Amino acid sequence: MLKKLFTFLVISVVIGVFYTELTGKTNFRGMFSERVLGITQEQEEDEGQHYSLEKKNDNTWDPGKAAIKDADSYHKEAKEFSNKTINTINSFEEK
């Protein structure tokens, strides 16, 4: 009997928290991101606008060349990360 009461209590609390979060009465997600992650709501709103691909008005803009250029930069970053990882593994093996 006590197990059922405890289970019902936990389920009702979880449903209540989700309902108040959806209706906007509480802002647990905002409090969590601000206190734990250190992200304020203004920063969160600004972050979504950094990555947008817009076609330039120039006739010289080629999306294929732009993609190759981006891929080249990502490849360089991957190589640097790989080299750092190999160096870290080698330093552990030397000890």
Strand content: under 5%
Helix content: over 70%
Order of helices and strands: HHHH
* Rg computed from alpha carbons, rounded to a whole number of angstroms: 25 Å
Number of strands: 0
Low-confidence stretches: none
Task: Walk me through the structure.
Helix content is 75%, strand content 0%. It is built from 4 helices and no strands. The chain is flat. It starts with a helix and ends with a helix.
Which labels suit this protein?
single chain, 95 residues, mainly alpha, 0% strand
Tell me briefly what this model is.
75% of the residues lie in helices and 0% in strands.
Describe the secondary-structure layout.
Blueprint: H1 2-23, H2 28-37, H3 41-47, H4 63-94
